[in-house]
Amino acid sequence: MNLHAAILALSTTLLLLLLLPALYRLHTILSPTRPKPRLVPGENAHILIVLGSGGHTAEMLSMLSRAELDWKNKLSRRTWVVGEGDGISAERAGGFEREVIGGGEADEEGEGRWSVQTVPRARKIHQRVWTAPWSCVRCAWVCWGVLLPSEEEERESADFPDIILVNGPATATILVFVSVLMRFLDAGGCHSRGKMRTVYVESWARVKRVSLSGRLLGWVVDRFLVQWESLEGRVGGGRGEFVGVLV
């Protein structure tokens, strides 16, 4: 064996030694057989909800208003994520807190009960395609900061979200991929403690074909819910749970 062949063999061996543990780690996080998260994982849970503006926000709030959830006791901490410039969704999140959760009295934002976090849009309407990678990276960077508890939040006993609930906007797709990266790295022990389990709800408007966001996240999220029986099992290697109309 000449020197060139020996170096190539050594490099291939080293690459495999590095790659195989990473693939196994990724499999443990994304395996289809992994336990499904419950929407209400326990007492005093932290839920993060992404509002995607327009129809995405309307569907998400309609779904949440119909859900029989113990917001005060079991979901005592809520984080709402909205895209940059989407003041309407931020206002609607506040209205939901006051009218649905607060029972007419507003919980105080920023005191450990609920907050609205703004992140850059992954891609703006009519944005040039070649500029999208930069905006996606910028969005991912800010999403990392939103998911990772700050020192001040840790002093208030805040933690990673237990459940991340999304229904399709591009910003939500980036945030979910960031959460998977954090679980892969077990940042702050988030994966070993069962944090940041993801639930994707496909839009009611999707009857025959899953959306682009759905196709991207089909293999990644912990649960993928569809609202039409025609979409059952149509994503992520047979995933896609038909649960009826949620909105």
Task: Give an overview in words.
Pfam families: Alg14. Belongs to the ALG14 family. Its main location: endoplasmic reticulum. The chain has about 250 residues and is an alpha/beta fold. It has one domain: Rossmann fold. The protein has helices at about 5-30, 55-65, 85-100, 130-145, 150-155, 170-185, 210-215; strands at about 45-50, 75-85, 115-120, 165, 195-200, 225, 240. Helix 3 links the parallel strand 2 (about 75-85) and strand 3 (about 115-120). The N and C termini lie far apart (about 65 Å).
Give the helices and strands, then pairings.
Layout: H1 3-30, E1 46-50, H2 54-66, E2 77-83, H3 87-101, E3 114-119, H4 132-147, H5 151-155, E4 163-166, H6 170-185, E5 197-201, H7 212-217, E6 223-226, E7 241-242
Parallel strand pairs: 1-2, 1-4, 2-3, 4-5, 5-6, 6-7
Helix pairs in contact: 2-3, 4-6
Pfam family, one: Alg14
Protein name: UDP-N-acetylglucosamine transferase subunit ALG14
Organism: Zasmidium cellare ATCC 36951
Q: Which key features would you list for this structure?
A:
247 residues, alpha/beta, 40% helix, 13% strand, globular, transmembrane helix, endoplasmic reticulum, Oligosacch_biosynth_Alg14, membrane, transmembrane
Q: What is the radius of gyration computed over CA atoms, rounded to a whole number of angstroms?
A: 20 Å
**CATH architecture descriptor text:** 3-Layer(aba) Sandwich
Order of helix and strand elements from N to C terminus: HEHEHEHHEHEHEE
The counted number of beta strands is: 7
Principal-axes shape call: globular
Give the N-to-C terminal Cα separation: 66 Å
Main beta sheet: 7 strands, parallel
Whole-number count of domains: 1
Estimate the mean pLDDT confidence: 82
What is the CATH first-level class name?
Answer: Alpha Beta
CATH topology: the name is Rossmann fold
Uncertain segments: none
Judged by helices, strands and strand pairing, the structural class is: alpha/beta
* Helix proportion range: 40-55%
Q: Strand fraction band?
A: 5-15%
Number of helices: 7
Task: Identify the strand order in the major beta sheet.
Answer: 3-2-1-4-5-6-7
